[in-house]
């Protein structure tokens, strides 16, 4: 991929290019607006580098196929939107449970059900966290620009490999379809799958290593024969119902994320140092929020912005810290208040929401209305 | 006999996974024995084989055998297998599924795997019932037979799995039974060696959840029923359609030579210039 040159791209294209830059060589998907351009782009580009593109019969099998490819040692990805994301949930849980790195892009559209295929939304924030059954770890990233569609896709692959976990890139229809001139970064960090440090006989793919170190996933076919299952398993991967082993298996899933929040969570702060009011916004809405901050500052109102780039795990500690300084959180979202609920959890009674579900972008003016109301 | 158990022992994972979950008299163990002998015959090493399975009594097979093994979700084994095969074409992939697994919840993946002619070997253990969940009717439960959710008898027309996959374009289709275990070995090793999507349907008795409820007698009785009703395909073809009754054909039913998915994909790579890397 050429660096430095300026490129006019849309978000979906940038996302696909980011995936290629991260070393993704396997894409399986099923067409759905507003994500389809990712599949279309990769159907052209992957064969050029000897990679695999396949259009599966549905999103269930797309998710299964990328897990299979990852087990064979190839970085893999799928892309979808709401209805397809719903279909992926069971196998997404499998990837969490079996600790298989992979990246799932969900370009959110209005829902529920078929909803508004061509209109943006942020309605899948909770589904991305809790869509599959049972307690499971997940990492969810939310880009706000075309450039971030590129960089965060790379980051998603890195986190997937590092933490042996599915990672979801939660875009919205605006970010996916928006065109921007961007300059691809000259240098990017790419994390590849580490080699195992032990011979086959000593290999336990689900071992609890001291210090929470994560066991490298050895690709199938390299002499490390082991078992992978969605059932609760012991450290060697075989099903178990022994209480301590069950607990260890499930705890490990949660703690590998929880113990690394500092590494996983990314946020951006804008004019927050002296702010009385903090807007919490992500994805395309964060762009309106930033503009609202500028307008407010011009009016002499001390408003700042916290943008969670990592939506899950939710940057709760950041919020709690900011909460000590600010009087109010304003949370604009293209849904009925999914992240708003999280903000309330961290800072009860100090948050108000700005919601919009009619398929239009939240404007700076709409956010300002709430701020002016609160400032009175 | 001793030779058989030595072969079996070579491929089992005795320290971790036994006792196994299967009921006394269950046919799945016989099918597993045939699979092991077939793999032994093909000469592939354990490291070259990936055994992918779905969920069900038959799906548990992947737990017991010492290959690269993947126990997936109910019905989705073929999708996982597709990903593995395309990501690493050198691996030989065998996909074990139950009748419900393969033709109900996973029916869509089955027909599309046939159509793509993806180079996998599917082994469908057909016991005409949902064994694992306690005997509910499956897409292969014969009409009027009883199941825990068809206490008045099933009113749904069953699939003929082999006809289904033939119509969908599978390259190799064969059927055997637990009574005809040696034939099953032979068919499976041919299926594994075959390029393209190959399917072997193994009729397998479930005396506990299907047999008992339908008064089919013991496991041995059920196997004797296979003995009496399984007809080698050439002989079966000669039976006039009106006189078929409960008989069904066994042996190789389809054997086509067609380019498989990966061969076609390599053409795409060529067109895109990816072969010049
Ligand atoms: C999505 C989903 N639905 C339902 C089940 C419950 N379930 C487990 S096995 C099974 C049926 C098994 O029947 P079959 O595939 O014929 O395999 P057998 O047990 O007979 O070998 C069902 C319905 C499940 N595990 N997952
Ligand atoms: S329920 Fe039927 S298929 Fe399952 S193990 Fe028992 S006998 Fe076998
Ligand atoms: Mg069955």
List keywords for this structure.
heterodimer, A: 376 residues, alpha/beta, eight-stranded mixed β-sheet, five-stranded mixed β-sheet, 21% strand, B: 277 residues, 8 strands, 42% helix, 16% strand, globular, binds thiamine diphosphate, binds iron/sulfur cluster, binds magnesium ion
Average pLDDT across residues of chain B? 96
- The number of helical segments of chain B is 13
- Compute the number of helices of chain A: 13
Strand residues, percent of chain A: 15-25%
How many individual β-strands of chain B?
8
What does the main sheet of chain A amount to? Answer: 8 strands, mixed
Distinct bound molecules: thiamine diphosphate, iron/sulfur cluster, magnesium ion
Which strand-content bin applies to the residues of chain B?
A: 15-25%
Specify which chain pair forms the largest interface.
A-B, 48 and 44 residues
Structural class computed from helices and strand pairing of chain B? alpha/beta
Helix content of chain A: 25-40%
List the helices and strands and how they pair.
The complex is a heterodimer of chains A (376) and B (277).
Chain A: E1 6-10, H1 11-21, E2 26-29, H2 36-48, E3 52-55, H3 59-71, E4 76-80, H4 82-98, E5 102-110, E6 116-120, H5 125-130, E7 139-141, H6 146-163, E8 166-172, H7 173-177, E9 179-183, E10 227-229, H8 243-258, H9 261-264, E11 267-270, E12 277-280, H10 284-298, E13 303-308, E14 310-312, H11 316-323, E15 328-333, H12 338-346, E16 351-355, H13 364-375
Chain B: H1 2-11, H2 14-17, H3 28-42, E1 49-53, H4 61-64, E2 68-71, H5 77-87, E3 92-98, H6 99-105, H7 107-116, E4 121-126, H8 161-167, E5 172-177, H9 181-193, E6 198-203, H10 207-211, H11 219-229, E7 230-232, H12 233-238, E8 248-255, H13 261-272
Parallel strand pairs in B: 1-2, 1-3, 3-4, 4-6, 5-6, 7-8
Antiparallel strand pairs in B: 5-8
Bound molecules: thiamine diphosphate, iron/sulfur cluster (SF4) and magnesium ion.
Thiamine diphosphate binds at residues 55-58, 74, 98-101, 125, 127, 129-133, 138 of chain B.
């Amino acid at each position: 991929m050429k660096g430095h040159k300026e490129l006019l791209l849309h978000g979906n294209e940038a996302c696909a290019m980011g995936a290629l830059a991260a070393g993704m060589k396997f894409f399986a998907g099923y067409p759905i607006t507003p994500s389809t351009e990712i599949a279309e782009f990769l159907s052209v580009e992957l064969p050029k580098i000897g990679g695999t593109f396949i259009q599966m019969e549905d999103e269930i099998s797309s998710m299964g196929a990328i897990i299979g490819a990852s087990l064979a040692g190839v970085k893999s990805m799928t892309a979808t939107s709401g209805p397809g994301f719903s279909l992926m949930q069971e196998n997404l849980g499998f990837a969490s449970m079996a600790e298989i790195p992979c990246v799932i892009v969900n370009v959110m559209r209005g829902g529920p059900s078929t909803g508004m295929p061509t209109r943006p939304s942020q309605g899948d924030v909770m589904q991305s966290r809790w869509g599959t059954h049972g307690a499971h770890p997940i990492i969810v990233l939310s880009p706000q620009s075309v450039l971030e569609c590129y960089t965060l896709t790379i980051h998603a692959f890195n986190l997937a490999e590092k933490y042996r976990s599915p990672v979801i890139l939660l875009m919205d229809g605006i970010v996916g379809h928006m065109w921007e001139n961007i300059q691809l970064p000259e240098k990017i960090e790419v994390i590849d799958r580490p080699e195992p440090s032990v011979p086959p006989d000593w290999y336990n793919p689900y071992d609890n290593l001291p210090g929470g170190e994560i066991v490298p996933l050895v690709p199938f076919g390299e002499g490390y024969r082991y078992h992978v299952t969605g059932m609760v398993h012991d450290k060697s991967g075989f099903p178990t119902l022994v209480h301590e082993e069950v607990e260890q298996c499930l705890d490990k899933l949660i703690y590998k994320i929880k113990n690394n929040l500092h590494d996983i969570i990314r946020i951006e702060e804008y004019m927050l140092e002296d702010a009385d009011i903090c807007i919490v916004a992500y994805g395309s809405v964060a762009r309106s929020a930033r503009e609202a901050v500028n307008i407010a500052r011009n009016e002499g109102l001390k408003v700042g912005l916290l943008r969670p780039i990592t939506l899950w795990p939710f940057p709760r500690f950041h919020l709690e810290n900011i909460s000590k300084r600010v009087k109010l959180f304003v949370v604009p979202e293209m849904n009925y208040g999914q992240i708003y609920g999280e903000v309330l959890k961290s800072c009860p009674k100090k948050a108000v929401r700005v919601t919009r579900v009619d398929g239009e972008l939240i404007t700076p003016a709409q956010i300002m209305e709430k701020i002016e109301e609160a400032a009175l | 006999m001793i030779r058989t158990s030595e072969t079996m022992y070579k491929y089992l994972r005795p320290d971790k996974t036994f006792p196994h979950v299967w009921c006394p008299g269950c046919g799945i163990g016989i099918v597993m024995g045939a699979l092991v002998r077939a793999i032994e015959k093909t000469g592939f090493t354990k490291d070259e084989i990936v055994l992918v399975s779905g969920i069900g009594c038959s799906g548990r097979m992947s737990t017991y055998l010492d290959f690269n093994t993947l126990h997936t979700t109910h019905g989705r084994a073929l999708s996982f297998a597709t990903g593995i095969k395309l990501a690493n074409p050198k691996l030989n992939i065998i996909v074990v599924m139950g009748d419900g697994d393969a033709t109900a919840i996973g029916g869509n993946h089955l027909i599309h795997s046939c159509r793509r002619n993806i180079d996998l070997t599917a082994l469908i253990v057909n016991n005409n019932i949902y064994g694992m969940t306690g005997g509910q009717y499956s897409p292969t439960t014969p009409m009027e037979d009883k199941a825990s959710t068809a206490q008045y008898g099933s009113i749904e027309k069953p699939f003929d799995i082999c006809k289904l996959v033939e119509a969908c374009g599978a390259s190799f289709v064969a059927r055997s039974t637990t009574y005809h275990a040696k034939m099953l070995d032979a068919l499976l090793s041919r299926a594994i060696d075959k390029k393209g999507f190959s399917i072997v349907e193994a009729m397998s008795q479930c005396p506990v959840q299907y047999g008992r409820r339908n008064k089919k007698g013991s496991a041995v009785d059920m196997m004797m029923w296979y003995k009496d009703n399984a007809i080698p395909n050439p002989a079966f073809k000669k039976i006039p359609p009106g006189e078929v009754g409960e008989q069904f054909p066994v042996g190789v039913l389809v054997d086509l030579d067609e380019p498989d998915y990966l061969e076609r994909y390599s053409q795409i790579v060529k067109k895109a210039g990816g072969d010049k890397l």
